[in-house]
Design goal:
Subcellular location: Membrane
Structural class: mainly alpha
Number of strands: 0
Number of domains: 2
Pfam families: SecE (PF00584)
Distance between the termini: 84 Å
Function: Essential subunit of the Sec protein translocation channel SecYEG. Clamps together the 2 halves of SecY. May contact the channel plug during translocation.
Shape: elongated
Order of helices and strands: HHHH
Largest sheet: none
Helix content: over 70%
Main location: membrane
Keywords: Cell membrane, Membrane, Protein transport, Translocation, Transmembrane, Transmembrane helix, Transport
Radius of gyration: 28 Å
Number of helices: 4
């Protein structure tokens, strides 16, 4: 009995995704068709269609799982310990110095190899 419920949900989900894709297609085609109209009106229409498409997409199983994922990610981001400004500046300086040192080493190796190859070629 459960498989029938899941199957009907997936059938309706497929219909909902079809509606989402049709809304997106209407937005793309409408934007081209009304290219002579003001950009403001076209953008407002696209934003409206996008919001409706997002609402319909969130009504599907995948959409609900995606919304749950976003909520959980937001909770996890709150748990992050962000660096203080001095830590950030110090780490940035260390990275920049390291990159410059590696660049100088690579430049030196490239110059040495070029000099050796030029010596062999004559």
């Amino acid at each position: 009995m459960e498989s029938k419920a899941v199957q009907s949900t997936s059938r309706f989900d497929a219909l909902k995704w079809l509606v989402v894709f049709v809304l997106i297609a209407v937005g793309v085609v409408g934007n081209q068709y009304f290219s002579a109209e003001s950009v403001l009106y076209r953008v407002l229409a696209l934003v409206g269609l996008g919001l409706v498409a997002a609402f319909v997409a969130l009504q599907t199983e995948r959409g609900r799982r995606f919304a749950t994922l976003l909520k959980e990610a937001r909770v996890e981001i709150r748990k992050v310990v962000w660096p203080t400004r001095p830590e950030l500046v110090q780490t940035t300086i260390i990275v920049v110095v390291f990159v410059l040192v590696v660049a100088l080493i690579l430049w030196g190796m490239d110059s040495l190899i070029s000099w050796l190859v030029a010596g062999f070629i004559g």
